[in-house]
Amino acid sequence: MVPRRTTRHSRSTMVRPVTFSSFARTVANLATAYISKRQKPDLKLQRPSPSAPGDGFVEQSLEEKSERSESSEEEELEGVIQADFVFFDPIPDDFHGVKMLLQNYLDDKLWDLSGFVDLILGQTTVGTVVKIEDDEDDGLFSVVTVLNLGRYKDHKCIMEIKEFLFKVCLDRNVIDDLRLLWAEQAHDVGILVSQRVANLPLQLLPPLYALFDEVLWATEDEPTEELRKAFCFKSYLIVSKIYKHKNADHKKGKSSHNEELIIYIKPEDEIFHKLCLWSFYFPLHSEHVTTHEVRNYRLMGLVMAVEADKISSFRGELHSLIDDS
After folding, report:
1. Per the domain annotation, does 1 fall within a domain?
2. With the C-alpha atoms ordered 181, 182, 183, 185, is the resulting torsion angle positive or negative?
């Protein structure tokens, strides 16, 4: 049994960011490369750019590099700075950072994203944001939470998520499952929201998904029976993005050029996808950059329903993934 944290104000994790291959970094960065440049934080340190999902490393000035060379020499590996990531409960001041991370959650749809962020920030007992300790910019690098579908189904933002998913779901084998999830099963369903910058260290994934421990604690510790029941999830709904090979529907395993048919932008999505009860893809309409490395792939939306009793398997496989990386 995982012990409770006595306080949830912050917990820090010192990790050395992994170095992705050039292809993996290209795929991750392109996932949200269409974000307007004027919306990106103006950072000078060579580290993950906060609050801009999928961004790569930004250039470090020669002047700063010279000034930091003596003090940071031991912390750098191939140009990547060791950082002390801190996990916080969401607070109202995180509004703009969370909104930036989720700005393409529903592709290019204009919807009540601000209302959705308000729901996330209003739920402090379950949910986490990640920052760098003593960061003057106070930028967000990740947000993870889960919201009860039935509890919030009458909110405008949740109704718009429903409208969007029913519109993009073209799989006749899945649409009835989607309807059931949004109707009779709604109070047992959690919308699992997880977004982060693309190059966040993989070692942070297990503590991020300690979210499921928080869910368990909430079923015991929330002050009212209604709130405790709101976290008794039987399944989770996940909306994410992947790169799908243009020939994926006609082949299995790998393409004729030994290319993977699906590239998961977030590695944990491959585990969720394997364990899910049902899933469907949908095309994305947001403008995005393409390069030679991904010329044979399309950026696609991926919706998955994962049963709650699969979460222990998910966490075990996630730990194995990190240990093998």
Report:
1. no
2. positive
d(CA 177, CA 69): 56
Distances (CA, A) of 133 to 87, 159, 197, 200: 9, 37, 16, 15
Q: What is the pLDDT of residues 261-278, one digit of tens each?
A: 899 999 999 999 999 999
Selection from 60, 41, 48 nearest residue 15 by Cα: 48
Domain that holds residue 194: 10-324
The pTM of the full predicted model, rounded to 2 decimals, is: 0.79
Pull the structure tokens for residue 163. Answer: 């409208």
Q: Is the pLDDT of residue 65 over 80?
A: no
In angstroms, how far is the first alpha carbon of the chain from the final one?
Answer: 26
* Angle at the Cα of 249 from the Cα atoms of 23 and 25, rounded to 5 degrees: 10
Three-state secondary structure call for residue 228: helix
Tally of domains in the chain: 1
- Would residue 3 count as lying in a domain? no
pLDDT band at 200 (very low <50, low <70, confident <90, very high): confident
Q: Sorting pLDDT into bands at 50, 70 and 90, what band is 260?
A: confident
